[in-house]
Amino acid sequence: MIVRCGHCGTKNRVPAAADGSPVCGNCHRPLPWIADAGDEDFTEVAERSSVPVIVDLWAAWCAPCRTVSPVLERIAHEMAGRLKLVKIDIDRAPKIQERFAVRAVPTLLLMREGKVIDRRAGAVFAGPLRTWVGEALGRDT
User: Fold this and answer.
1) pLDDT mean over 58-62
2) Count of Cβ atoms closer than 10 Å to residue 67 Cβ
């Protein structure tokens, strides 16, 4: 994925999985980390992440998913260097859907060190979503 640095405008290639968290090659400030994953690479992309992860389990046909997605991306930008957003299309990842017993989309998981620390299903506005992320990560630190 190519990400433009919000500070200096430099385009940076950001891998789906890596040690640490991405920084701009020019100004060295944190970059947002947004990645897609599926059944084959979920462990590498999400569970082995060195920073906490929001897993967005979504579907292309889901209108609430399209509402939540931009909010999650804004949060990933705001928390660059401290949080990773991993997006999973459940129609293309049936094993992940089954593993996490996804019955409604969007379903959001908060993970730290490969473990789910909290989850919620359904669309949510930006303010409550930020509060949920902050509270879940705060109580797990």
Assistant:
1) 97
2) 13
